Amino acid sequence: MKMGSVQLVVFLCVINTVRSISNATHENYIDVVNLIDTLLQGYSAFTVPRRNQSETIQVDMEFSLKALNKFDVVDGHLTVVTAIALNWTDDMLRWNPSSNKNISQINFPLSRIWTPNLYLLNCAEEFLVYTGDPATKEVEISSNGEARLFFMEVFTTTCSTDIAFYPNDVHHCKIYLSTLTSARKLRMGLPQVTILDFETNGKWKIKDVQSEVELLGMNIDRVGISVTLERRMMFDIMSIVFPVVFLGLVNVVVFKLPVDSGERMSFAMTVLLSFAVYMTLIADRMPQTSNTTSVFCIYLMAMLTYSTLIVFATTFSINCHHNNTNPVTDCVDRLVQAWMTIRKVNPNDTEAYPIAERKQTIQMKVEPLSKPASNTETSTDDSKNKTDNSDKFFFSFFLLYFAISTFVLFVMILCR
């Protein structure tokens, strides 16, 4: 019995000792509240927390891109999801953990302590970056005075776009952040930028991210974060570039259609109107500025000119083909003079080929309608041969025009 009693007494003593040690080394709610009240006695949330007010406070930033919500090339707006952490040292919020129930860290409400304001200088919507409730947002304070404010925000910035090599375009967007506090009181450190957990965007990819700190003329530090965006061009190539290229290739086929079919002019006009519609669609995708002009827009304008010239060439070809009643027209006369030039005969040389004789020779070719049908057939064959020759010339010329323009387009886009 005595042995059992001794063991019971020892066991109870151990339990009491453990409880006392636990109570001494682990904080409870009352301990944290009392420590907060003690630290905030005489504390001002409107004064930079430096014992020596002539010293500057250093604010370091951690910047992480989480997602790219939208990049509007036309308006020049970039909307991103970011995670930002601000770190600084608060001289007024320091304590000894060993004498305060080993409390090493406390979360203070944002409204009760000093925190640096962070502004988005090139904002498109909100100017102040963190816009949450100051009473609920907290700042993490360590016993050595190190403070950390972490928040996530979605903000929209302005961005200067460059669509010169659309759809293989690259844009350099700047995100400017500042506390708007004099550099005599506060200095910004070079931010640490990460994109390790960035959510992949189907239209744009992050090519590079860099950071810098600049001192503005107003003696204010400004953090600049440069984000380089590159377009994923496969969709635009397949849905915009290739249809325009194929439309231009089909356009030249108009000279292979039979003239008597009556479809040449309607075909040429349809393709011309299609290019005009594409010009309107592309204009909606481009910024309304003349600072940079897209190579693809220049190509589309060249194709519109190309299609317009084909309409004129088609009109000329049809006119020559159906002008059979009077072969001696201006068109035929020009062709005759061109042929004479090829034969090295100077049409202006009256001695070698007098004008009266030339007219008489040409008039001899004009047969009255009462002549035999064989002469009419000969005239029709001559007109058909002239039409065929002009079609071959126009087909070769415009096909070469199209090939060179398209080759230059793809070289400039792909070799940006």
Task: Please provide a brief summary of the model.
This protein is an alpha+beta fold and 416 residues long. The chain has helices at 2-25, 29-39, 234-251, 264-285, 295-322, 330-342, 355-364, 373-414, and strands spanning 57-72, 77-89, 105-109, 119-120, 138-142, 146-158, 170-178, 186-188, 192-194, 204-215, 221-231.
Overview of this protein structure:
The protein is of the alpha+beta class. 40% of the residues lie in helices and 22% in strands. The protein is rod-shaped, with a radius of gyration of 41 Å. 19% of the residues are buried.
* Percent helix: 40-55%
User: What is the strand content?
Assistant: 15-25%
Number of helices: 8
Q: Biggest sheet: strands, sense, closure? A: 7 strands, mixed
Radius of gyration: 41 Å
Q: Pairing-aware structural class of the strands and helices?
A: alpha+beta
Q: Tell me how many strands there are.
A: 11
Overall 3D geometry? rod-shaped
Instruction: Return the string of H and E elements.
Output: HHEEEEEEEEEEEHHHHHH
Mean pLDDT, all residues: 80
Alpha carbon gap, first and last residue: 96 Å
What low-confidence regions span 5 or more consecutive residues with pLDDT below 50? 20-24, 325-329, 350-375
